[in-house]
Amino acid sequence: MTTTTLLQYSHTLGFMANQGRGFNNPVDLAINSRGIVHVLNRAGPEVGVRIAYKRITRCTPDEEYLGEFCTGGTGDGELWWPSALAFDDEDRLYVADEALNRISIYDQDGNYLDKWGAAGTGAGQFNRPSFIAFDRDYNLLVSDSLNHRVQKYTREGRFLSQWGEYGGGNGQFNMPWGLAVDSQGQVYVSDWRNDRIQKFDKNGAFVSAVGNSGREEGEFNRPSGLAVDLQGNIIVADWGNERVQILDNEGRFVASFRGDSRDSLWAQDYFAANPDEASARRAAHLEPEIESRPEYDAHRGYEWERSANVEKLFWGPTSVKVGPDGLVYVVDSLRHRIQIYRQTG
Amino acid sequence: MANNELALMAHLMRRAGFGATRDELDACVSLGYEATVEQLLHPESAPVMDEDLLRRYHIDQNSLMLIESSQAYWLYRIINTRRPLEEKMALFWHGLFATAYGKLNHAKAVVNQTNTFRRCGLGDFRTLLLELSRDPAMIFWLDNKDNHKDAPNENYGRELLELFSMGIGNYTEDDVKACARAFTGWTISNSDYMSIRASRDSIWPHGRLDWQFVYLPEDHDDSDKTFLGHTGPFNGQDVIDIICQQPATGWFVASKLYSFFVSDTPNEEAIQYLSDRFAETEGNILEVMRSLLLSDFFKGEEARLARVKSPTELVAGTARLAGSYQFPEWGIVNLAMDVSFMGQEILNPPTVEGWHTGREWIDTGNLVERVNSAALEMGDLARPGVQAALARVREAGDSLEPTEFVDVCLDALGLYDVTDATRESLVNHAARDGVLQFGERGAADCSDARVAEMLQLIVATREYQLA
Question: Which residues between 30 and 49 in chain A have a beta carbon less than 8 angstroms from any beta carbon of chain B?
Answer without folding.
Answer: 42-47
